[in-house]
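BUG-365 | component: ligand-complex export | severity: low

The export step for 6-O-phosphono-beta-D-fructofuranose jobs runs without errors, but we want the raw record kept on the ticket for reference. Input record follows.
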Amino acid sequence: MAAKHIRSIAVMTGGGDCPGLNAVIRAVVKTAINKHKLDVWGIQDGYLGLIENRLDRLSYNDVSNILTLGGTILGTSNIANPFHYAYKTGRGLQYKDVSDDCIKALQERQIDALVCIGGDGTMATAAQFAKKGLTVMGVPKTIDNDLYGTDVTFGFNTAVTTATEAIDKVHTTASSHHRVMIVEVMGRYAGWIALHAGVAGGADVILIPEIPYELPRVCDYVLARSSRGKRFSIICAAEGAKPKGGSMVVSHRVAGSPDPIRLGGIGNKLASDINGKTGLDCRAVVLGHVQRGGTPTPYDRTLATNFGHTAMDLLMKGVKNHLVVFKDGRFSSISLGRVAGRTRTVPKNCGLIRAAMAVGTSFGV
Ligand code: F6P
């Protein structure tokens, strides 16, 4: 089914930024202009810019020389939901549905389709717009790698590379001072970054939300290493790691955000708990937003380029309201309706967990 009616598209980046966003923007815009002869608009700051009617035309030159650039030239926001838009009043935050205004902003410019580059929150909103008749195509972004339907999201590989480099560096100082060093990585409710960076960096203990840990097991493990002459240990902990029967450590809440909880603090909690039980000298390093910055790895640049190109080709073939995915070794797409409200966590029977356990890595159980 050919989609001859698409003459103009808009592209936006939503949610937390991540390496590779600009590579996708470049691929979408260049494919749209070069291959499909379309007009292209860029929406500033994600759904917030759509709500506030901030759109600009994008030319070929606007997206030239951005392949290797971190962040997003369009800007992003993770607090604006057009269907539940928070605004301040004298009585505190109030909410309203401004989705019709957003659709009007697109119609006024004769924009036929919207390419949404984002994570689960962005896709949930995109699915709501699709229900209202908008033609939407999603591209899966997030360092957390937790988007349902795709085996990988762009940004993840770069975040893992950054976290692995940090673990490598921590190794030498941990060894010099005979310390337990805990490296806390991001990932929200999924342990993908911790698992991959932990394995790649040779962490002795990997703690992920999917496998609640037992503190005595972690302590026994580092003490056993000490008694074997290994006088230091490296623990890679996902920000969502939690003890068995306990809860995740919440750093703060962001008022008005569709997903207000921000995790963080497990690294310092573990340092204090392990020191209290073992007497070993412990330090925590919280990598935080460093994992979201910098130039994308070659893997993420190529993945992002493939995703952006596939998104445009599918749209022009008449596919709509889908998320582009990389599944079982090939690029395809799935309905946004199937993605909305779901996340992809690390399965307990994951091959990498089995491999890590086989080489002696502890998961604290
Ligand atoms: O989803 C990406 C992510 O970096 C998570 O890993 C982290 O929990 C969260 O965003 C942090 O959000 P913010 O940038 O709002 O602090």
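Assignee comment: Attached the raw record above. The longest helix spans residues 156-177.
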